[in-house]
Write a structure and sequence with these properties.
By secondary structure, the chain is mainly α. It has 2 helices and 2 strands.
Length: 117
Amino acid sequence: MVKGGRPGAALAGMGGDELGNVKKLEVAVRVTSQHDGSVWNWEPSKFENRLFMMRELYQSIMTYGPRDLPLTEDPFWDPPEPVEIGMGKCCELVITDRVSRANIHLNRCVQARHTCI
């Protein structure tokens, strides 16, 4: 610890800010497809795994020639993952009220034996 310095001064070179808060550094490897311009941001561990798969695939192609590749062996294929694209707030009372009204309308049609649209 640095005596007489402001809090966090010793961390200034290690990602700290002027208030002494330490920032978390995240490293990612950006991979861009030359075929269609798709971009992936991989964590270093995922990149190492995929690099191993790429080397194995290259050796296989050099030894046995080109072949059809199942998706599970494609180093650039990822299974679909849920992605949050946004959030919103809504009033539960309004939704409940509309559902209740829809049920009441449906019940009235069923009781009257009418066709509801």
